[in-house]
Amino acid sequence: NKGKYEHYMQKEIHEQPESLTTTMRGRLIRGGSCKAKTVLLGGLKDHLKTIRRSRRIVFIGCGTSYNAALAARPILEELSGIPVTMEIASDLLDRQGPIYREDTTVFVSQSGETADTLNALEYALENGALCVGITNTVGSAIARHTHCGVHINAGAEIGVASTKAYTSQIVVMAMLALAIGGDTISSQARRDAIIDGLFELPSKVREVLKLDQEMKDLAQLLIAEQSLLVFGRGYNYATALEGALKVKEVALMHSEGILAGEMKHGPLALVDENLPIVVIATRDACFSKQQSVIQQLNARKGRLIVMCSKGDAASVTVGGSCRVIEVPQVEDCLQPVINIVPLQLLAYHLTVLRGYNVDQPRNLAKSVTTE
Ligand code: UD1
Ligand code: BG6
User: Fold this and answer.
1) What's the average model confidence in pLDDT over 220-245?
2) Which of 325, 320, 287 is nearest to 306 (CA)?
3) Burial class (CB in 10 A: 0-12, 13-18, 19+), 98
4) Is 147 within 8 Å of 132 (Cβ atoms)?
5) Site residues for ligand 2, CB cut-off 6 Å
6) Model confidence at 283: pLDDT above 90
7) Which of 87, 158, 175, 292 is the most exposed place for a label (fewest CB within 10 A)?
8) pLDDT at 248 over 90
9) Whether residue 357 has pLDDT greater than 90
């Protein structure tokens, strides 16, 4: 049921304040005056000790689910101190990459049925790793075959392009990072800030959704383009990949997410006054590096669309002209949840304006159950 919406993708984008609320329900504990704020993931509580002892955490997934894990990687590394590596399921299998008994492997899948991810799970089980699932589908193959896990509880997702599952996956993995990282005195302030940030996330997402018309106007401007680049780094490297994936899969426009730190190692050659480029430059530890990326793109007359934190328009437009998307700021590790929303809206509107099928893009399936 699409309710008041024209398409499932549109409905699922706009329902994110609610889906995120359901994802967190019963799992965040605010704590009384003297009690610490904590996270409770029922599906993991008996396995946390084993996870904390593991030598490595390996995230495994495909498509949007892989991108969600990439978004959560920095905070998991920070809070757990355990090395976190990333695997695209098919590539892990192609390489028969090493997986050890001392590893915790985390399988991220909205459907819980993706063939490559499921095959990678069988492979990790054979190799004796602890296997954790992060799925949206209770009773799915991945939920059943993993040793333990967390349901993201985002509600059924119908649109082939994943939107609300992405943001809920990131939130679950941020909660996973809080659950694995011990609550040492030194990390308490950071943990509290993240938990407060999680509580206010639904209202911040509601706020960023107000950019709908602005994104429609931007889509109108980009309707006839051949290509769109998206630059991001740090917490928002994943946002660049996921934003580009949305544009590619539904609007059928070539789009590439680029790690801004790699700009000079190739992508800069593409920059001219015609190619539109989205640069994600919200406030975090990488902000000044992104400011210098913007300057260098400006020096090559790049056609920039800069996403920045509210109030930062002047700081990101120095030395050039560009379009600005201002988004509400949240705790840095949660910012990918906010930043993807305008790009989801952009991909949605581009698709509708270009006259393509939003909910069932050409050649794609919601759940890829064959290799
Ligand atoms: C569970 C209940 C929820 C109830 C809550 C109250 C289910 C599905 N969930 O939620 O209805 O309100 O307790 O305490 O009955 N699992 C995997 N692999 C996965 C995902 C999950 O093995 O990929 C396992 C978990 O380890 C856990 C079970 O499935 O044993 C349920 O997981 P989850 O729904 O996340 O647990 P709770 O949030 O505690
Ligand atoms: C398909 C979908 O390619 O599978 C994508 O079209 C999705 O939206 C990918 O990200 C992985 O699916 P899942 O269910 O394992 O998260």
Assistant:
1) 98
2) 325
3) exposed
4) yes
5) 62-65, 109-111, 114, 117, 160-162, 364, 366-368
6) yes
7) 292
8) yes
9) yes
Does the C-beta of 135 come closer than 6 Å to ligand 1?
yes
**Cα separations in angstroms, 243 against 60, 224, 358:** 20, 18, 15
Give me ligand 2 centre to Cα 367, in Å: 6
Report phi then psi at 232, rounded to 5. Answer: -150, 170
Q: Which residue matches tokens 């498509």?
A: 63
DSSP reduced 3-state for 322? coil
Local structure of residue 187 (DSSP, 8 states): G
Sign of CA dihedral 246, 248, 251, 254: positive
What confidence score (pLDDT) does residue 59 get? 98
Q: Other C-beta atoms within 10 Å of 127: how many?
A: 16
How many angstroms separate the Cα of 103 from the Cα of each of 55, 129, 361? 6, 5, 37
The whole-angstrom separation of Cα 58 and Cα 210 is 36
Q: Is the CB of 43 under 6 A from ligand 1?
A: yes
Longest dimension (CA), the chain: 58
pLDDT of 71 over the 80 cut:
yes
Atom 27 in ligand 1: residue holding the nearest Cα: 43
CA gap 293, 234 in Å, rounded = 14
Q: Count Cβ atoms below 10 Å from residue 13 Cβ, excluding itself.
A: 25
Q: Which atom of ligand 1 is nearest to the CA of 138?
A: 8
Amino acid at site 75: I
> Are the beta carbons of 326 and 310 closer than 8 angstroms?
yes
> Residue 42: CB within 6 Å of ligand 1?
yes
In this structure, what are the phi and psi dihedrals at residue 111, rounded to the nearest 5 degrees?
Answer: -75, -30
Nearest-5° angle of CA 239, CA 166, CA 342? Answer: 50
Instruction: Put the strands of the sheet holding 254-259 in their side by side order.
Output: 254-259, 227-232, 276-281, 303-309, 323-327
- Compute the mean pLDDT over every residue in the chain, rounded to the nearest whole number: 96
- Cα-based distances in Å from 143 to 113, 130, 146, 150: 9, 14, 6, 8
The tens digit of pLDDT for each residue in 164-193 reads 999 999 999 999 999 999 778 889 999 999
Instruction: Supply the pLDDT for residue 34.
Output: 64
Task: Determine contact, residues 39/178, Cβ cutoff 8 Å.
Answer: yes
**Which residue, by CA, sits nearest to atom 25 of ligand 1?**
43
CA-proximal residue: ligand 1, atom 35 (nearest): 150
Contact 130, 51 (CB under 8 A): yes
